[in-house]
Amino acid sequence: MKCIQIFKDGKMDELIIPKKNIIKHLTNASNSQGNDELTNIYKWHFEGEIIACFGWYDGDKGFENSHDLPYGGESSFIEEDSSEKILYGDVFILKYKDEKVFDITISDYSVFYSDRFDNFSNYGSDNDDICDTHELQENEVLIDEDDEIIEPGIATDDLECDYFDY
Q: 17 phi and psi, to 5 degrees?
């Protein structure tokens, strides 16, 4: 099975490992490690598949992985968004569908990665247009930079905000 190894300097390589004892094989293939055990840190849903990130979420200074993960990764134990979390040592990207592991190439990951950043950029630019001057309607919620909710019906003038239509 093909997966992606992202070295701590951000360079990537495709790695072939068996479909059994995945953690053991990824750990053995790593050139740089963080503290504790290699674990599945984040996952993203993409086109009916799951893109999973395995790595180390704790480590020593100097062993930080320079790769920026896409936003919105789900984790069962880390609250910090995947785009903000610093990982240590090598990072591995795998692809699953229906709980079975499938090949993922650097090209596949690039398509997923670009899609995530395009969606994030589009979301941000939509917010900017809406938040410059806008009167909130009953079905809208606005959050200011201090994470305070701005009540419906209040006019906003050049607020930095997150806008949600529910």
A: -135, 160
Residue 17 within any structural domain of the chain: yes
Q: How many CB atoms lie within 10 A of CB 15?
A: 18
Number of domains making up the chain: 1
- Helix/strand/coil (H, E, C) string of 99-141? CEEECCCHHHHHHHHHHHHHHHHHHHHHHHHHHCEEECCCCEE
pTM of the model: 0.72
In a domain? residue 148 = no
- The rounded distance, in Å, linking the Cα atoms of 7 and 33 is 10
Q: What is the pLDDT along the chain (166 residues), one digit of tens a residue?
A: 999 999 999 999 999 999 999 999 999 999 999 999 999 999 999 999 999 999 999 999 999 999 999 999 999 999 999 999 999 999 999 999 998 999 999 999 999 999 988 765 544 444 444 334 444 455 555 555 555 555 555 544 444 444 344 3
**Residues spanned by the domain of 92:** 2-122
